Amino acid sequence: MAIKVLAPAGVCSPIRYPVAKFLGFVAGAVALLLTPVIPAAAQSVAPNPLNAVVGVRAVVPASARSAQTLGQERQGGGVVIGKDGLVLTIGYLIMEAVETEIVEQDGSVVPADVVAYDYETGFGLLRPLGKLDANPIELGDSTQLPKDTRVLVAGPDGPSPALVVSRREFAGYWEYLLPDAIFTSPPYRSFGGAALIGSDGRLLGIGSLIVGDAGAPGEQLPGNMFVPISALTPIMEDLLRDGRSTKSARPWLGLYTQELRGHVFISRVAPGGPAEQAGVPSNTIVMAVGNHKVSSLSEFYKAIWALGQPGVAVPLTLLDSGAGYREVVVTSGDRYDYLNLDPTY
C-alpha cells in the first residue's frame, strides 16, 4: 500500500522517468532556469545538478508507530549530496523503515541503509550499499532566498519550474515547527523528498508537503512547503555521527492538533503516547498551557517547549463541549523513545 497525499507524509509516486523522457524534461527546464545565469562554457563542464535526483523507497513493518498513518510502503524522492552517494530526503519516508532502497533515473535499484532521521528539521539521510550513477549536488544558501525567486523543483515526476511565494514559520499538526519554511507555487505532485534547486544549480531545500495556502495563511494558493537546506548544515556532523541532532530533545505530548477560529483543537491523540496516558481526549480545545493562553499551534508548541526537557509536567486547560473546562497534567515524553527506530541510530 503506497500512500499518495497525506500530510505530513504525502509520499509521492514511484520514480517514473526513463532516461529519454527525463532528458527531454531536463533540456527545457535547464534552458528556462539556468541558461541566463550560468555561462555557456561553464555549463559544458559543470555536472548537471538534476543528475543528483533519485527516487527513494522504504518498507515499514505493521508494528511501526507510523504504519497506520503513513503507510507501510513509502515512495518519494531524494538527492545525492555526498561523493560516497549519501542521499538527503525527507525523513517521514524512511522513519521506522526496515528496508530502504534508492532508485536511479534509469530504473536501477540500489539497497541503502538509514543513516539519520531528525524529527526537528524533518531531514533524513540514506547511504547506498552500492555505487550510484549520479553526481552529488552542491548545497546552496537558503537564507538568501527571497520571495519571487525562480527555482526548479525536481523529483520522481521530473523537473518543473516554480516560484518562491513566501518565507515564513510553519506549524505542523504533529508537534512540528519550522521557523523559516520555503513555500513555492505551482504545486509539484511528487513533493516528498523533491529537490528545490536554485538558478546557480545548488540545492536550496527538500520537499515536505503540498499545501493550499502557500502564499499566506488562509489565502488560497496551492503549492509546496520545503525544508530549507540551511537547517542541515548546523546538524550535519551530528546526523552522520549519531543519526540525529544532539540538541536537547523537546517535550512531546503525542497530540495531533489544528487551528480552528483562533483555537487549538485536538483532533487525534497518539495511541500509547503521553497525552493518552494522562487521559487527554480528542475533539477538545486547548485553552492554555499553565498560565499561558494559546490560540495557535505555534503558541501551543512554544509554551510546551519552554517548560523544559522530555519528562517535564505539562499542565493543560481543556474545553470539552460536553464536560466544560478541565485541568489535565501530562508527563511529557521523548518522541524518539516512542518511535520504533533502528537500534543502530
In short:
This protein is mainly beta. It has helices at 19-33, 40-45, 67-70, 236-242, 274-277, 297-305, 335-338; strands spanning 53-59, 73-80, 87-90, 99-103, 109-117, 123-128, 150-155, 158-172, 176-185, 195-197, 203-211, 223-228, 255-260, 263-269, 284-289, 292-293, 313-320, 324-331.
Q: What is the CATH class designation of the largest domain?
A: Mainly Beta
Average pLDDT value?
88
Low-confidence stretches: 1-32, 34-45
Count of individual beta strands: 18
Strand order of the largest sheet: 1-2-3-6-5-4
Q: What shape does the CA trace take?
A: globular
Main β sheet profile:
6 strands, antiparallel, barrel
The level of helicity is 10-25%
Quaternary organisation: single chain
CATH fold-level topology of the largest domain: Thrombin, subunit H
- Count of alpha and pi helical runs: 7
CATH superfamily (homologous) name of the largest domain: Trypsin-like serine proteases
Estimate the strand proportion. 35-45%
Q: Indicate how many domains the architecture comprises.
A: 3
Q: Which architecture of the largest domain would the CATH scheme give at its second level?
A: Beta Barrel
What structural category characterises the helix and strand content? mainly beta
- What Rg, in angstroms, do the CA atoms define? 20 Å
The SSE order reads: HHEHEEEEEEEEEEEHEEHEEHEEH
Q: Give the CA-CA distance, first to last residue.
A: 26 Å
